[in-house]
């Protein structure tokens, strides 16, 4: 499971996280949503051990990532918002590198690459250089690299950005399968329908903290119909953003 | 205890080899150019050399020293592209420690530098009858120390610069300054009077001196050069490791 408690992070005068709490159980998919600058990517960076919190901490499968990053990272898979692959290497070479660094060898590494490639529909691309692939294909390879070692905690930061419908379906199916296998999944997105397809609960981040935790329906129910139409995600963001600002002012 | 880090270093080294194979241009250029320039400059170095010393003893090591220093650009580039491709952070989300990354990436580059020296000195042996058979082990020791020194300087440079443009400028200026000051282009004795006392500050000077001593049978003198080159290389690697540790913590 993934547990973040009272995480604070500042970049100079900018407060990126201000008491960020999040708990994701094994087998649960949590859709982390929020406007740009809400703190989602900073949280992902801290949860992956790339950034140090000023205060508070994150536990990955029970291990404090700041205290024992090597052990925590064994249990963690991250597919960040930016594609992170070697364009001059083939898909197979990229996957061999990331699998190998997680301790996979020989037959096991080969099988895991085949499984991940099959799940994300990139088997036919294994011998192709990443730089020659389309954006959607690269996105699938990028995600496959995070799955090879079957991590207990999966952090996916906007994994469907730039993905075509087929890629999106493959990604969502793979995330569902990983959750069914017991992984705790933190799924950052701007698209609420994806969370419904994933059967995910929602964590709404704003001003550096989680201001709502619940189902998608519960989230949308927090606002009455606006001008005769159901509330949209933008409406929800605005509503919770204003509430969060008010709460912080009071604090 | 050591097995997992060693395996990760090997995984990174193997991958770095793949990346070098996909973009071999600089490695080929920095191996062919010293051969071309050695051929052109050997008669000049023969005229400038002490009586009885073949010109090739200075010509081949001189060009080797200069083009080995240019290889710091390849070393720097191998680390800078990791940032451009966002792969540095991704590597950091694996159990790999920063020092393992550094060593894994440096190993193939060390091998490339050793191969460069073998090719250039091999050419000198075949084309100019440079007596490598007699000086083989000594020359190999100097070559190994020089390769480590260049890798150390290259990794330190790579962690200090922030862009390819910076890397290119620093590499070009430093290479020509250190090679020139070290006597790789013309003998130190022919440099301006103010440059002579500064020459030992250049690692290129110790590489030139080490090669010349090794190739002319002055084993003990070569030992001093080897020691200094290893110390410079170790300092460069330590500086790079400290900087990477600081920037990743």
How would you explain this protein's 3D organization?
The complex is a heterodimer of chains A (251) and B (249). With 251 residues, chain A is of the alpha/beta class. Helix content of chain A is 39%, strand content 24%. Chain A has helices spanning 40-47, 69-74, 91-101, 106-119, 135-147, 165-180, 192-198, 216-220, 233-250, and strands at 2-11, 14-24, 29-33, 55-60, 63-64, 76-79, 153-157, 184-188, 201-206, 209-214. In chain A, the strands form 2 sheets. Chain A has a 6-stranded mixed beta sheet, sandwiched between helices. In chain A, strands 2-1-4-5 form a 4-stranded antiparallel beta sheet. In chain A, a hairpin with a 2-residue loop joins strand 4 (55-60) and strand 5 (63-64). The longest helix of chain A has 18 residues, at 233-250. The two termini of chain A are 30 Å apart. The mean pLDDT of chain A is 89. Chain B is mainly alpha-helical. Helix content of chain B is 80%, strand content 0%. Chain B has 10 helices and no strands. The mean pLDDT of chain B is 90. The interface between A and B is medium-sized, with 30 and 24 residues.
Which chain pair shows the most residues in contact? A-B, 30 and 24 residues
N/C terminus separation of chain B: 23 Å
What is the arithmetic mean of pLDDT of chain B? Answer: 90
User: Are there runs of chain A of 5+ residues with pLDDT below 50, and where?
Assistant: none
Strand fraction of chain B: under 5%
Radius of gyration of chain A: 18 Å
Q: Tell me the structural class of chain B.
A: mainly alpha
> Using DSSP, what is the number of strands of chain B?
0
What is the chain-wise order of helices and strands of chain B? HHHHHHHHHH
SS summary, helix count of chain B: 10
* Terminal-residue CA separation of chain A: 30 Å
Which structural class should the secondary elements of chain A be placed in? alpha/beta
Helix fraction bin of chain A: 25-40%
Q: Provide the spatial order of strands within the biggest beta sheet of chain A.
A: 6-7-8-3-9-10
Report the total helices of chain A. Answer: 9
What is the ordering of alpha helices and beta strands of chain A? EEEHEEHEHHHEHEHEEHH
Strand content of chain A: 15-25%
Count the strands of chain A?
A: 10
The oligomerization state is heterodimer
């Amino acid at each position: 499971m993934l547990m973040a408690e009272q995480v604070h992070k500042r970049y100079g005068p900018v407060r990126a996280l201000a008491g960020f709490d999040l708990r994701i159980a094994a087998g649960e998919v949590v859709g982390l949503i929020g406007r740009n600058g809400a703190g989602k990517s900073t949280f992902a960076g801290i949860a992956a051990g790339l950034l140090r919190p000023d205060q508070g901490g994150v536990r990955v499968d029970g291990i404090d990532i700041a205290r024992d990053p090597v052990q925590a990272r064994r249990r963690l898979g991250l597919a960040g918002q930016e594609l992170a692959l070697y364009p001059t290497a083939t898909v197979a070479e990229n996957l061999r590198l990331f699998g190998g660094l997680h301790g996979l060898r020989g037959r096991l590494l080969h099988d895991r690459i085949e499984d991940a490639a099959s799940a994300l529909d990139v088997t036919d691309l294994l011998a192709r250089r990443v730089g020659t692939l389309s954006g959607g294909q690269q996105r699938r390879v990028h995600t496959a690299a995070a799955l090879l070692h079957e991590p207990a905690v999966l952090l996916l930061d906007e994994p469907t950005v730039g993905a075509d419908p087929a890629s999106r379906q493959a990604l969502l199916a793979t995330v569902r399968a990983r959750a069914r296998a017991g992984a705790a999944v933190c799924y950052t997105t701007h698209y609420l329908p994806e969370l419904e397809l994933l059967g995910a609960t929602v964590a709404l981040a704003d001003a550096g903290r989680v201001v709502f935790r619940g189902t998608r329906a519960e989230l949308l129910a927090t606002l009455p119909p606006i001008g005769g139409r159901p509330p949209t995600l933008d409406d929800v963001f605005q509503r919770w953003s204003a509430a969060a600002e008010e709460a912080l002012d009071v604090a | 205890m050591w097995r997992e880090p060693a395996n990760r270093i090997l995984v990174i080294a193997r991958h770095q080899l793949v990346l070098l194979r996909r973009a071999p241009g600089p490695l080929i250029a920095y191996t062919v150019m010293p051969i071309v320039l050695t051929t052109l400059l050997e008669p000049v170095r023969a005229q400038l050399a002490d009586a009885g010393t073949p010109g090739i003893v200075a010509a081949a090591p001189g060009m080797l020293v200069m083009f080995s220093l240019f290889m710091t650009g390849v070393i720097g580039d191998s680390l800078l592209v990791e940032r451009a491709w966002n792969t540095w952070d991704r590597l950091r989300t694996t159990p790999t420690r920063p020092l393992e990354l550094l060593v894994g990436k440096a190993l193939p580059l060390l091998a490339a530098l050793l191969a460069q020296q073998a090719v250039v000195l091999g050419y000198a042996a075949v084309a100019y009858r440079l007596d490598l058979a007699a000086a083989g082990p000594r020359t190999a020791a100097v070559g190994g120390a020089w390769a480590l020194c260049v890798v150390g300087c290259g990794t330190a440079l790579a962690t200090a610069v922030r862009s390819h443009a910076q890397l290119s400028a620093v590499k070009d200026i430093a290479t020509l300054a250190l090679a020139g000051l070290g006597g790789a282009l013309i003998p130190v004795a022919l440099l301006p009077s103010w440059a002579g006392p500064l020459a030992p500050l250049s690692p290129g000077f110790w590489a030139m001196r080490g090669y010349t001593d090794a190739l002319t049978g002055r084993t003990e003198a070569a030992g001093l050069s080897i020691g200094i080159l290893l110390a410079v290389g170790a300092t460069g690697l330590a500086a790079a490791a400290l900087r990477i540790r600081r920037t990743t913590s």
